[in-house]
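Data follows
____________
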Amino acid sequence: MEAAKFHGINIAAQSFVRLVYPFGFDSRNFSGLRAAVAAAEWSPGKHLWEPLHLPQEDLLPHISRHMESSSNPLACAWRATSQALQKNAVFASQQGNWRLATPQREISFLIHDIQLCLFSVGTGFLVFELAPHSEQIVDWLDFLHYARFSGSGKRSRKLRVLRRKEHGHEEEFIPEFFQPHLPQGKPENFRLSVIADAILAGFRAKLPQFSWREVFIPGQFLVYAALFIGSGLKEQVSLARLRQQVLNLFHANEVFAISPQDAADDAPGFLQYQEKQWFFVSLESAGFLAAEYPDSEFYRTTLPDYLRKIYFFLWILSLSQRYILIELSDEVTKSWPSVHTEDPTAHEKNFEQIREKLLFFTARGLFGQIAHKRTHHRFYTLCQQVFQIEPLYTEVKEEITEMHNYVIMQRTRELDIRVGIYGALVGVPTLILSLIDALASVYQVTSAADQVAMWRIFTAVAVPTVIVLLGLFFWRRLKKALRFLWGKIALAKRGMGKSGEET
């Protein structure tokens, strides 16, 4: 068993795990959502959230000034009230009465804190800070691996909540706040995703139009962990393998091999802090691992506090940037296929809105430099590199610019054709009329019969010309309408065929 090599290795008390549920929302609802969060209750008259100040003092002045501005903040944060985290309240966090089912055993854990952070660009992060009761590193590695599968799906892990009754007995129960959100109303379907859904759905009481969307793997949480090895580290335990095990969220019995590149101190996804201490970032995890460190106040309290505040904020800020850019790219992709079949005016407006979103994000969500301190900046740079923010931004910006220009070019071409046709409709009859008038002057046409003959010539030439020009104008529009109609008919036939096959 791979887990045997970890026997006797303990995790120190300052360690913690954060499971993070990222979601997207309409940035136009940011102000209303802030008010809804402030008014949310877990029980009548009992508020669920209290304000949490972001680490502004560690940010550059021009960002710090706008971070929590009263009128138009870049981001806002809250934490669950102490009442909500009490033993008999909504999160029942005391006495380790939460249980996570794994294939090997149940792992008992505490809920230390629950936080919510909203960015004005349209992303949010619901954060659960947890800690297994056990000090054994085996339990922590298994917890990191299994706890993130807390949604629906084959790998999802059931949660149980136990409450203490008289004579020390415990019984399983589901807090009332979550019961309406249980799938099929069954207690065996209780997951961490049920808690997230209950919290977010509660905001609709004050903001009925609020909705959220998945921006990460459905049914899976991100993991942010700070692991301080307390004692028992053995020489035969490879730190390079331990680092990869934590970075990739492998469980304790996972069998895997590492490359020479991954064995180096500067392996991809790692940033060395001190000797045998590293920050790590991947697409689904981040955090800090300390294999050896002095027994000092800094490592017991100060550094864990930094990890909970500024480092965590820099990580979710980078995640926010990644999700918004991916969403913008998705909007371009969805808008492009119908460019040739619908009104160019509508597409010009659509791409203009996407372009405005990109400009809004550039002004309020994209920062190349953000922190004062060297280590904070290096960690932020690591996040930017792993998430490939700069190349992703360049790609999305070029996509939007090129396609917006193409749609405008189409619109301009359409306008040029219309102007040409309108000019011909007016100009050709006028030219013919001028020609006839000139001929009449040359040949001194004065009799009524001659004038009638001249007008007949004008009519014979002008009317067919106008009919041809009008035909050209409306034929273009008729072609588009017929193409659109045939497309709808084809889709309808395809849908009927599928329904017939299912029947």
Summary: The mean pLDDT is 82.
